[in-house]
Design brief:
Length: 169
């Protein structure tokens, strides 16, 4: 990704800092008698730099939003899904975008997922890379401290708000 943006090849790795954060979430979605009324996980983007999802090999439900239309993410057995997060969107000045996605419940089948989230050191600040900001492409995001961003992310998650909108200029 750094190479595509013509940044130093370790640019994103360097942004992580010495105390980068990683956490894993195991999620169980039971069968749901009224799937038209209940989300497994409401629409959101990931607040991290990168997420790795072990895709369920038997049950779909993951959808991504593009141009106001929800698309099913196909089931491809034995794969990992890599998802760009909000932190990457900020650092790339919006060139890479953090997709809005959701999980639907299923009437007949339970679903399991495992997601691994990578985040910049909570004490660090991020902003658009200087090399990606100029008079033709101004900064789209303000500088933000990661721990403050994540507090906002988790605080607004239950409201269904996209916290990345709070750091847009």
């Amino acid at each position: 990704m750094a190479k595509l943006l013509e940044l130093d090849h370790d640019y994103f790795v360097d942004q992580l800092g010495e105390k980068a954060d990683a956490h894993v979430r195991f999620t169980y979605y039971p069968e749901c008698p009224r799937p038209e009324l209940v989300y497994g996980l409401k629409p959101h983007s990931d607040g991290t730099i990168l997420s790795v999802l072990m895709v369920n090999d038997r049950v779909g439900g993951l959808q991504v939003l593009k141009d106001s239309v929800w698309f099913d993410v196909p089931i491809v057995p034995h794969t990992l899904l890599i998802n760009i997060g909000d932190q990457t969107e900020i650092i790339s000045n919006g060139i890479f975008s953090s997709p809005v996605h959701r999980v639907l419940t299923n009437l007949d089948r339970e679903r399991l997922s495992v997601a691994l989230f990578y985040s910049v050191d909570p004490e660090r600040e991020i902003k658009p890379a200087d090399q990606l900001v100029d008079e033709n492409r101004p900064a789209l995001y303000r500088k933000v401290k990661i721990k403050d961003y994540l507090v906002g992310f988790y605080g607004r998650f239950s409201e269904g708000a996209m916290v990345i909108d709070t750091v847009k200029i």
